[in-house]
Write a structure and sequence with these properties.
By secondary structure, the chain is mainly alpha-helical. The chain is about 70% helix and about 0% strand.
Length: about 130
Protein backbone atom coordinates (compact mmCIF):
# COMPACT_ATOMS: atom_id res chain seq x y z
CA UNK A 1 0.00 0.00 0.00
CA UNK A 2 1.18 3.49 -0.78
CA UNK A 3 0.05 5.96 1.85
CA UNK A 4 1.53 8.73 -0.26
CA UNK A 5 -0.79 7.74 -3.10
CA UNK A 6 -3.69 7.62 -0.63
CA UNK A 7 -2.80 11.10 0.64
CA UNK A 8 -2.85 12.41 -2.92
CA UNK A 9 -6.28 10.86 -3.39
CA UNK A 10 -7.51 12.32 -0.08
CA UNK A 11 -6.25 15.74 -1.15
CA UNK A 12 -8.14 15.51 -4.44
CA UNK A 13 -11.31 14.42 -2.64
CA UNK A 14 -11.07 17.11 0.05
CA UNK A 15 -10.31 19.73 -2.58
CA UNK A 16 -13.45 18.74 -4.48
CA UNK A 17 -15.50 18.74 -1.27
CA UNK A 18 -14.03 22.07 -0.10
CA UNK A 19 -14.93 23.73 -3.40
CA UNK A 20 -18.55 22.70 -2.96
CA UNK A 21 -18.96 19.32 -4.60
CA UNK A 22 -22.13 17.84 -3.17
CA UNK A 23 -21.50 14.31 -4.44
CA UNK A 24 -18.38 13.07 -2.69
CA UNK A 25 -19.23 9.45 -3.53
CA UNK A 26 -19.09 10.24 -7.25
CA UNK A 27 -15.89 12.25 -6.78
CA UNK A 28 -14.33 9.42 -4.77
CA UNK A 29 -15.26 6.87 -7.44
CA UNK A 30 -13.64 9.00 -10.14
CA UNK A 31 -10.48 9.50 -8.08
CA UNK A 32 -10.25 5.78 -7.29
CA UNK A 33 -10.57 4.90 -10.96
CA UNK A 34 -8.23 7.65 -12.20
CA UNK A 35 -5.51 6.80 -9.66
CA UNK A 36 -6.05 3.02 -9.84
CA UNK A 37 -6.18 2.72 -6.06
CA UNK A 38 -6.06 -0.72 -4.46
CA UNK A 39 -8.31 -1.75 -1.56
CA UNK A 40 -5.85 -0.69 1.16
CA UNK A 41 -5.32 2.71 -0.45
CA UNK A 42 -9.07 3.19 -0.77
CA UNK A 43 -9.58 2.19 2.85
CA UNK A 44 -6.98 4.70 4.06
CA UNK A 45 -8.46 7.41 1.84
CA UNK A 46 -11.92 6.84 3.28
CA UNK A 47 -10.64 6.63 6.87
CA UNK A 48 -8.76 9.93 6.74
CA UNK A 49 -11.42 11.74 4.69
CA UNK A 50 -14.08 10.71 7.21
CA UNK A 51 -11.83 11.71 10.12
CA UNK A 52 -11.33 15.17 8.61
CA UNK A 53 -15.03 15.69 7.93
CA UNK A 54 -16.10 14.40 11.35
CA UNK A 55 -13.54 16.56 13.22
CA UNK A 56 -13.43 19.54 10.88
CA UNK A 57 -14.09 22.21 13.50
CA UNK A 58 -11.48 20.79 15.91
CA UNK A 59 -8.85 20.46 13.18
CA UNK A 60 -9.54 23.87 11.66
CA UNK A 61 -9.26 25.51 15.09
CA UNK A 62 -5.93 23.76 15.74
CA UNK A 63 -4.62 24.90 12.35
CA UNK A 64 -5.87 28.47 12.67
CA UNK A 65 -4.37 28.76 16.15
CA UNK A 66 -0.96 28.19 14.53
CA UNK A 67 -1.42 30.56 11.59
CA UNK A 68 0.33 33.81 12.43
CA UNK A 69 -1.88 36.77 11.45
CA UNK A 70 -3.86 34.64 9.00
CA UNK A 71 -7.27 33.05 8.89
CA UNK A 72 -7.72 29.52 7.61
CA UNK A 73 -10.08 30.65 4.85
CA UNK A 74 -7.37 32.96 3.45
CA UNK A 75 -5.24 29.93 2.60
CA UNK A 76 -5.58 28.36 -0.81
CA UNK A 77 -7.79 25.26 -0.80
CA UNK A 78 -4.83 22.96 -1.45
CA UNK A 79 -2.79 24.26 1.49
CA UNK A 80 -5.82 24.21 3.76
CA UNK A 81 -6.59 20.60 2.89
CA UNK A 82 -2.99 19.39 3.12
CA UNK A 83 -2.99 20.78 6.66
CA UNK A 84 -6.30 19.05 7.42
CA UNK A 85 -4.97 15.70 6.20
CA UNK A 86 -1.84 16.03 8.30
CA UNK A 87 -3.76 17.05 11.41
CA UNK A 88 -6.09 14.06 10.93
CA UNK A 89 -3.05 11.80 10.78
CA UNK A 90 -1.54 13.49 13.84
CA UNK A 91 -4.79 12.85 15.70
CA UNK A 92 -3.69 9.23 15.91
CA UNK A 93 0.00 9.50 16.84
CA UNK A 94 0.21 5.80 17.63
CA UNK A 95 0.11 5.07 13.91
CA UNK A 96 2.46 7.58 12.24
CA UNK A 97 5.16 9.64 14.00
CA UNK A 98 4.73 13.42 13.82
CA UNK A 99 7.92 14.01 11.80
CA UNK A 100 6.79 11.57 9.10
CA UNK A 101 3.36 13.23 8.91
CA UNK A 102 5.01 16.64 8.55
CA UNK A 103 7.40 15.37 5.90
CA UNK A 104 4.58 13.82 3.88
CA UNK A 105 2.55 17.04 4.09
CA UNK A 106 5.58 19.05 2.95
CA UNK A 107 6.05 16.69 0.00
CA UNK A 108 2.38 17.13 -0.98
CA UNK A 109 2.81 20.90 -0.81
CA UNK A 110 5.93 20.74 -2.98
CA UNK A 111 4.04 18.67 -5.53
CA UNK A 112 0.74 20.60 -5.66
CA UNK A 113 1.25 24.11 -4.26
CA UNK A 114 3.15 27.34 -4.71
CA UNK A 115 6.94 27.16 -4.34
CA UNK A 116 6.91 28.55 -0.79
CA UNK A 117 3.79 26.84 0.56
CA UNK A 118 5.75 23.94 1.99
CA UNK A 119 7.40 26.33 4.49
CA UNK A 120 4.00 27.42 5.78
CA UNK A 121 2.83 23.78 6.01
CA UNK A 122 5.99 22.80 7.90
CA UNK A 123 5.77 25.72 10.32
CA UNK A 124 2.11 25.23 11.16
CA UNK A 125 2.39 21.48 11.65
CA UNK A 126 5.54 21.73 13.77
CA UNK A 127 3.53 23.71 16.33
CA UNK A 128 0.26 21.74 16.23
CA UNK A 129 -0.80 20.32 19.56
CA UNK A 130 -4.13 18.51 19.45
CA UNK A 131 -4.26 18.03 23.19
CA UNK A 132 -5.44 21.66 23.45
CA UNK A 133 -8.09 21.30 20.76
Amino acid sequence: MSRRKSRQAILKLLYSWDLGSSNTKNSADKIIEYMSLNEEEISYMVEIFDRVINNLEKYDQAIEKNLKLWKLQRLAALERNILRIAVAELDDLNVIPKQIVINEAVELAKLYCDDKAYKLINGVLANIDLSDA
